[in-house]
Amino acid sequence: MCQPAGARRRLKEAMISSEAMSEHAQKQAARYDLLLPEDPAGARRRLKEAMISSEAMSEHAQKQAARYDLLLPEDAGYTTIRSHSNLFSEHYVPGLHLSQFGPYRLDYSRTGRHLLVGGKKGHVACIDWQTKDLMCEMNVMETVNDVKWLHTEAMFAVAQKRWLYIYDSKGVELHCVKKFNDVLRMQFLPYHFLLATAVRQQVLLKKTLQRVNCPLAFLIGLTNGKKRIKRPRKAIGLDRKLKVYDIRAFKPLHSCFLPAGASCLSLSQRGLLSAATGDIVQVYQNILGSSPVSKPYMAHRLRGQIWGLAYCPFEDVLGIGHGEGFTSMIVPGAGEPNFDALDTNPYRSYEQRQEWEVKALLEKVQPELIGLHPEQLSKVDQASFEQRHKEQVEALGFDPLAKDKFKPKTKKKGRSSAGAIEKRKRKVAHEDQRDEIRQSVQERTEREKELKEKFNEKKLGNKSTLDRFRK
């Protein structure tokens, strides 16, 4: 279930080259439009050559894409488990019996290679999911509500009883975010480098005070490079209904009954939705399609209370955290069979991860683009620079654009005495004021000159040739 890395790389290079040639042709056309009145023949000839070259590159990119599709033979399918499971799948389905510190939350890294588990009683561990090597293991000695990998497998976040902590893959504490207290659930946005949290709150449901344990999290699926965002708005209703909403239209797509209120939800790369109700896991197929959902695709019962669900990327494996530890479940057709080696490569080296991290930071998406209304992207922010600068000063507590005070450098041979330093300070003490005075004097001189010219024009315009003979 892998893809030659060179195929995606060459395809992406061809598409980038085509887009660059198309953009170059548009710029050339805009430049040649200025030459049309003077040299129409030469401008049209060069413009035609640029358009022909752009069309040739686009056609070449389409042919290359069709050729490279032959190198991606893997496809997701649905089948029974035990009769068709191979040794490769069995290698990914071991369980962890950890009944002392459970129940457990879990999270897979974006590449699907690393697993992070966190027990409610403080146990936190990182595991290389392919080699089964233990990266780190520790006990934070307080309640752990949730764990989440960050942009790479080198750092992860732990929502502990009081505050939010950031650790590295060796278990060393990197940062403690005290502004985030009583965090229940977390979700990391990899393309924005943002960590979203759900804090402790009490919700009144039909005169019953209950705490929300299943956050209304965004479920993101990628299909052909297009992002679809779905959100279960009523995951734990008292009517035992699971509803999937399309937030673009704010209308429910599907609705189905559950045995009890869902405590955990997880969406796979191929659109399979898992819901945990008590000690039962139900998997629903085609949850994002147009056909109604009548019954679950799969169901599995465990021994303990389920506390966490997560699909392993690029694998047909569902990780389940419960009171007795951790269990893996084979779900055919859950994982994406072909991965993009330029984005998430499970087999990348340390140097490749560093290079990817630098590129990802340079291409980071601004958080202002997060919104439910896509038409807001076309609107212009009318806030003035002064208003934004004032808000920034109030938030930071200082003016980031203000010039630093002059600090004389230390000089040798006795030239850094107290008197010499004060003398140098006096020389530059009023430079800003001098610049303002020079600018105001220059503006006043120009204004007086303009007024004088207007007065002379008006004075000469009222006179006639016979005025010189008047007394």
Automatic annotation (TrEMBL):
Residues 429-471 have a biased composition (Basic and acidic residues). The keyword Transmembrane does not apply. GO terms for cellular component: 90S preribosome; small-subunit processome. It is found in: Nucleus, Nucleolus. Residues 404-471 are annotated as: Disordered. Its main location: nucleus. InterPro entries: BING4_C_dom, WD40/YVTN_repeat-like_dom_sf, WD40_repeat_dom_sf, WDR46/Utp7. Keywords: Nucleus, Repeat, WD repeat. One of its GO terms (biological process) is maturation of SSU-rRNA from tricistronic rRNA transcript (SSU-rRNA, 5.8S rRNA, LSU-rRNA). Residues 296-374 form the BING4 C-terminal domain. PANTHER family: WD REPEAT-CONTAINING PROTEIN 46 (PTHR14085:SF3), WD-REPEAT PROTEIN BING4 (PTHR14085). This is WD repeat-containing protein 46-like. It comes from Sinocyclocheilus anshuiensis.
